[in-house]
TrEMBL record:
The keyword Phosphoprotein applies. Belongs to the phosphohexose mutase family. GO terms for biological process: carbohydrate metabolic process; purine ribonucleoside salvage. This is Phosphomannomutase.
Length: 555
């Protein structure tokens, strides 16, 4: 008991020091209430002070709450101060460009970042309103920013927020101009953040320059240039931004490109940080697109499109004669977009990640195009090939697509949606569909059936234990075939990859959510052009593979 009392006293003292330095009265009141609840509130207080949110290659992301292990004005002030100090130490010139979504706290965090930048003598350019992450990534390049900050938690639950950092050409180099940071920049920024002194001594300047709508118009104009101006436009689209910030920009881009304006799910059309109609604001989550499908049905839509809340991801839902409406897997959309660009004669490097389907590799090999495979994340995809060939397309299976790296050097759900619409309209003019094109690719390259085993946890030790288990007792067979390759990517990355002659499994913890993920793929040849039978065999094999992997992980 004495030890417990000592621990509580130590955390209470940490909390009191934090309160003395916290610039936000609301956060101080929140933390004071937790302190007043001691000793019953000891576990919550300990969690809030378990350690600071660590600034990594995804920036910061965490729950909105007072204390160092949360997203709040104090943490953001410290992060902004560390960032501008690091930029100055690197000799970076030019403005800091700042964007934000519509989550709780996003605008306040963005405005504080601008004040910290101007207080340090650096110009700050603030996007005019809550806007998609791709607009911020575009603005960093377009405006010659030294760096960019996007305040967003993307598709995380409503109680979260986050802080992503992009570098401009001066510090990011040619491949990283307008891209998210990679090592060693993340470690350098983290060290600078930890070196920030009392927050009361961080100088705060003017609010910075709020940009006009001409920036958004410029983004939309460049986005529509991604597709053929003379292609078919007869296409009825149902759309949802999932209570996020994508609707205004996407509908403007469709209108400028000459497509009919998509119908938007009415009760998900406006930004709402509570995300009231979905359990999780992620198109991949069960039930997230139910309202979208209902709208598509009622309007006779040719296809349905969903963005995640910050509109950097794009989900595509199609009418399937076999199954009704179904969401295409990220791998399916990725290879459809790649094939479309290849058919348009777009040459250059095509890239994806180690957890994506191997079909893109097969397509590039057959068509004589350069290909590269990276670790998970667009910060790596946009740097694929190391400059050996210009990147023209990159995707990751988690619904992220970069169809125009010279426009946005990151995943972009707006240009991806436009390009999907271009492909679908072209196929419709021929009496065909996206699923018809997928069948053609399967007939040529075999069925590459992918799926995911994804487990959300409350205790991160469950993930650590499962990863330790698969390393200590790695399967020697899968689906009755020998595992002929077992790769462990530690220490570079916490990833285990298993391969047989026809199957592949990639196991890793999520980098942004408390999830363990296993990415599954089975390749099934198509015999005598019978794609449906091959798909059925592949689906059965993946279901069996999922069970085997789940057992091996102990989850």
């Amino acid at each position: 008991m004495a030890a417990d009392t000592t621990d509580i006293d130590d955390i209470r003292e940490q909390a009191r020091r934090w309160l003395a330095d916290d610039p936000d009265p609301a956060s101080r009141d929140e933390l004071t209430a937790v302190l007043d609840g001691l000793p019953a509130s000891a576990p919550e207080l300990a969690d809030r002070f378990a350690g600071p949110l660590t600034f990594g290659t995804a920036g910061l992301r965490g729950p909105l709450r007072a204390g160092p292990n949360g997203m709040n004005l104090a943490v953001v002030t410290q992060a902004a101060a560390g960032l501008v100090t690091w930029l100055a130490a690197q000799g970076g010139t030019g403005p800091l460009v700042i964007g934000y979504d519509a989550r709780h706290g996003s605008r306040e965090f963005a405005e504080r970042t601008a004040q910290v930048a101007t207080g340090a003598g650096r110009p700050a350019l603030l996007l005019p309103r809550p806007l998609p992450t791709p607009v911020l990534a575009y603005a960093v390049r377009h405006l010659g920013g030294v760096a960019g900050v996007m305040v967003t938690a993307s598709h995380n639950p409503p109680q979260d927020n986050g802080y992503k950092v992009y570098l401009g050409a001066e510090l990011g180099g040619e491949l990283g101009a307008g891209a998210q940071i990679v090592p060693p920049a993340d470690a350098g920024i983290e060290a600078a953040i930890r070196s920030v002194g009392p927050l009361a001594q961080v100088p705060l300047g003017e609010p910075g320059q709020v940009l006009g709508d001409d920036l958004v118009a410029s983004y939309v104009e460049r986005a529509t240039a991604v597709i053929d101006p003379d292609g078919p436009r007869d296409l009825t689209v149902a759309y949802t931004p999932l209570h996020g910030v994508g609707a205004a920009v996407l509908t403007a881009a469709f209108a400028r490109a000459g497509f009919p304006t998509p119908g938007v799910v009415p009760d998900q059309a406006e930004p709402d940080p509570a995300f009231p109609t979905v359990s999780f604001p992620n198109p991949e989550e069960p039930g997230a697109v139910d309202r979208l499908i209902a709208l598509a049905d009622s309007t006779g839509a040719d296809l349905a499109i969903a963005n995640d809340p910050d509109a950097d991801r794009c989900a595509v839902v199609v009418r399937d004669d076999r199954d009704g409406w179904r969401m295409l897997r990220g791998d399916e959309v990725g290879v459809l977009l790649a094939d479309h660009l290849m058919r348009r004669g777009v040459t250059g490097l095509y890239a994806t990640t180690i957890v994506s389907s191997s079909l893109l590799r097969a397509m590039c090999a057959a068509r004589g195009l350069p290909y590269d495979e990276t670790l998970t994340g667009f910060k790596w995809i946009v740097r694929a090939g190391g400059g050996s060939a210009p990147l023209v397309f990159g995707y990751e299976e988690a619904l992220g697509y970069c169809v125009a790296p010279e426009h946005v050097r990151d995943k972009d759900g707006i240009t991806a949606a436009l390009t999907v619409a271009e492909l679908a309209a072209g196929l419709k003019s021929q009496g065909r569909t996206l699923t018809d094109r997928l069948d053609e690719l399967a007939a040529e390259f075999g069925v590459h059936h992918t799926d995911q085993l994804s487990v959300r946890v409350d205790d991160l030790r469950v993930i650590a234990d499962a990863m330790a288990r698969i390393r200590a007792d790695t399967p020697t067979t899968l689906l009755g075939q020998s595992v002929d390759s077992a790769r462990d990517l530690l220490p570079e990355s916490d990833v285990v990859i298993l391969r047989t002659a026809t199957a592949r499994v990639v196991i890793r913890p999520s980098g942004t959510e408390p999830k363990l993920k296993a990415y599954l793929e089975v390749v099934e040849p198509v015999v005598d052009g019978d794609v449906p039978t091959a798909r059925s065999r592949a689906a059965s094999a993946v279901a069996a593979l999922r069970a085997e992997v789940s057992a091996a992980l102990g989850i």
